[in-house]
Please model this.
Amino acid sequence: MFGNRVVIPCNLRQKISNLFHEQHPGMLHMKILARSYMRWPKMNKEIENNVRLCEACQLVNFKHISRVIENLRTCFIVFGLPGEIVSDNDPPPSPAQAICFLGVHKIVCIQWH
Model:
């Protein structure tokens, strides 16, 4: 036990991680869910790798990003281009994506803990 969480042995980590990932909850939600029940060294990194390698998660992420871009474009039409965008949990796009799609040169992401 680690506090009120179970420490998962090495030989069961992938199997347990796959169980938490079955519904494709996304990286952030999967980390929150896993942290509330279990613990092992480098768990966050392993969850990140599992989600990044999952085609279904990538498709959901692509659809989400497309919706965000369309909503931002609508705001930009009404209010003009911002000099800075602040996001509170999503990973930032690459600088090339930001400039190409959004015309924005600075994106700030704030991680709330």
Summary: Residues 55-79 form the longest helix (25 residues).
